[in-house]
Amino acid sequence: MDDQGQATNLEELLDELTQAGEKDGKVSVGALIECVGRRSFGPLLMLAGLIALSPASGIPGMPTTVATLVVVVAVQFLLRRDHFWLPQWLLNRKVQHKRLCKMIKVLRRPAIFIDRFLRPRLVFMTHHAGIYAIAILCIIIAATMPPLEIMPFAATAAGAALATFGLALISNDGLVGLIAVAITGVVAGLVSYSFL
Questions:
Q1: Secondary-structure breakdown of the chain: helix, strand, coil percentages, each rounded to the nearest 5
Q2: What is the pTM assigned to this prediction?
Q3: Do residues 27 and 104 lie in contact, with contact meaning Cβ atoms separated by under 8 Å?
Q4: pLDDT tens for the 196 residues of the chain, in order
Q5: Cβ–Cβ under 8 Å, residues 174 and 125
Q6: Interatomic CA distance for residues 184 and 187, integer angstroms
């Protein structure tokens, strides 16, 4: 954790997400967001990507919900807001707590492995102009997600790109940001192949 108590790697973010839960066995997007904080662009991107990567992405409309979350947050980031507003209907969307725990359990071991390689480098990718470029790329990725719902696993590639961008910002690792750009190229290829 950093001095402000925010996650600085993937395992810490997963630890934060385990805190979310509600009595009816479901967890709302709002509860997940409260766990990672509404002030940080990186953790919110990472959260959106993880939801898109999880079994929850198979719920009809969930990729569109994730895309909306990304666009709303990224636009507000570009407008330099320090506290992100989100619509109530989006905050009220829920996923099964069991699915969330299953996703976290699956990701835990890879998270520990990935975290060993994270460190601040190529910081031009995660500061100033670089972070604004990431926000714009994430809006473009999000715009592809609703039409990709009809293709199995296509939204998963978009989720991987979003999660990787989020991880780059959390860990201040520009190399991870470049990997996310490469994944974005894969998403662009899927869109081109499917609709052009």
A1: 70, 5, 25
A2: 0.82
A3: no
A4: 544 556 777 888 888 887 776 556 788 888 888 877 766 788 888 888 888 877 666 667 778 888 998 999 999 889 988 778 888 888 888 877 777 777 788 888 888 898 888 899 998 888 889 989 999 999 999 988 887 777 656 678 888 899 999 999 988 999 999 999 999 888 787 777 666 5
A5: yes
A6: 5
